[in-house]
């Protein structure tokens, strides 16, 4: 058995703050601890959350920084973490003699890891998650990506080991820097133990940060003129919510917005357990955790051909081209009218999600950690 590692995990978002990248980081940390490794996390401070606490065996340090919302972090707020965490990470590195630094997001966290590596010589690797890659999230970070592109390329080429959860995101990275090597390790998934016997043949679910590129507007357009005996439920918060609510006004199919719900919220669990159909028509994705969530809840899934969505669902979902309400309408109606198809897709989804268990993904990361440490010793 490999000796236990002492790991420093860096991510500007960590639960209960942040989105899918934060959840992935937390679940990886907890499974590393279960494998008898030591993990410290340095993330950004938010409101009244403790400056330091221990959760499920993981020690969390919240560095001085500013963030106004739990679900969305603005560029200038990210910068406060980048600078505010320096003293914290350097002090911890000198106290704990970490074997490796695992960093999440090329920007804003990558520069912090690179700076700490220069100060301490601790080897590091970076997992990208999507919005940290130019071209992935142009509705939020278009001008920032253009402005930072020269620095981004320099930073990426300096990272010893890069990891992408999907081939699609790797290909986008290599379109900017063809010479970089990128390993692929999918996001793992910790099943939420849904009771899938609660399904109702009247509920369609969508869940995500409410951004324009998520494509929820096309679902609303697809169903608003149909008198379906179904309801559409939307979990999420974000800058596009007001627009979506305006589009949904007067819809013949009821569309209900629930706002942002924590994964442990009873309503979150209820909506996944009772919904038979899950729709996620995003225009650009890395390796969306919400699809893993829907698969675990045995939903019949409709998702887009964009990014890593097809890599996640495989043959356990129906695919639609992005920005195409008519095709979304066709797929929704086909599922509503075909109970057996819904059942078949749900069964495939429940089986496929087992490929992404955290025990399997944690082992992949541990192998990469050891290889990175060994390479560093030889350099």
Overview of the structural elements:
This protein has 379 residues and is an alpha/beta fold. It folds into two domains: 6-188 and 357-378, Rossmann fold (3-Layer(aba) Sandwich), CATH 3.40.50.2000; 196-355, Rossmann fold. The chain is 44% helix and 18% strand. The protein has helices at 20-34, 75-84, 86-96, 109-120, 138-158, 167-176, 216-223, 241-248, 266-274, 289-296, 309-313, 325-337, 339-352, 358-378; strands at 6-10, 38-44, 52-55, 58-63, 100-104, 124-127, 162-164, 182-184, 200-207, 231-235, 255-259, 275-280, 300-304, 317-320. An eight-stranded mixed beta sheet has the order 3-4-2-1-5-6-7-8, sandwiched between helices. The protein is globular and about 65 Å long.
Termini separation comes to 25 Å
CA-based shape? globular
Major sheet: arrangement of strands: 3-4-2-1-5-6-7-8
Strand residues, percent: 15-25%
Mean of residue pLDDT values: 93
Report the CATH superfamily of the largest domain: Glycogen Phosphorylase B
Broad CATH class of the largest domain: Alpha Beta
Q: What composes the largest sheet?
A: 8 strands, mixed
Given the helix and strand composition, which structural class is it?
alpha/beta
Roughly how much helix do the residues carry, as a percent range? 40-55%
Number of strands: 14
How many structural domains does the protein architecture include?
A: 2
**Continuous helix count:** 14
Which terms would index this structure?
379 residues; alpha/beta; Rossmann fold; 8-stranded mixed beta sheet
């Amino acid at each position: 058995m490999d000796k236990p590692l002492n790991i420093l995990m860096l991510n500007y978002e960590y639960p209960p703050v942040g989105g899918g990248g934060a959840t992935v980081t937390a679940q990886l940390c907890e499974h590393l601890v279960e494998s008898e490794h030591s993990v410290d996390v340095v993330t950004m401070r938010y409101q009244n959350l403790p400056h330091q606490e221990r959760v499920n065996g993981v020690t969390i340090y919240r560095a001085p920084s500013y963030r106004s919302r739990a679900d969305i972090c603005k560029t200038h707020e990210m910068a406060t973490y980048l600078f505010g965490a320096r003293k914290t990470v350097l002090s911890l590195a000198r106290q704990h003699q970490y074997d490796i630094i695992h960093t999440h997001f090329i920007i804003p966290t990558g520069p912090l890891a690179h700076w700490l590596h220069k100060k301490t010589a601790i080897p590091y690797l970076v997992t990208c998650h999507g919005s940290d890659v130019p071209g992935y999230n142009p509705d939020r970070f278009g001008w920032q990506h253009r402005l930072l592109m020269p620095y981004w390329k320099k930073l990426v080429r300096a990272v010893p080991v890069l990891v992408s959860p999907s081939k699609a995101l790797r290909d986008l990275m290599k379109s900017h820097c063809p010479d970089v090597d990128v390993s692929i390790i999918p996001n793992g998934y910790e099943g939420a133990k849904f009771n899938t016997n609660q399904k109702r043949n009247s509920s369609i679910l969508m869940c995500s940060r409410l951004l324009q590129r998520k494509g929820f507007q096309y679902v609303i357009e697809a169903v608003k003129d149909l008198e379906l005996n179904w309801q559409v439920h939307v979990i999420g918060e974000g800058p596009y919510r007001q627009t979506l609510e305006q589009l949904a006004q007067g819809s013949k199919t009821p569309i209900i917005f629930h706002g942002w719900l924590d994964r442990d919220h009873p309503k979150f669990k209820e909506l996944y357990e009772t919904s038979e159909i899950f729709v996620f028509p995003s225009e650009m994705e890395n390796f969306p955790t919400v699809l893993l969530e829907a698969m675990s809840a045995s939903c019949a899934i409709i998702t887009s051909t964009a990014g890593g969505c097809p890599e996640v669902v495989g043959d356990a979902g129906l695919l639609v081209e992005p920005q195409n309400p008519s095709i979304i309408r066709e797929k929704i109606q086909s599922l509503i009218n075909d109970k057996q198809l819904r059942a078949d897709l749900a069964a495939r989804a429940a089986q496929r999600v087992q490929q992404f268990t955290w025990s399997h993904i944690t082992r992949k990361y541990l192998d990469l950690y050891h290889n990175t440490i060994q390479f560093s010793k030889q350099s």
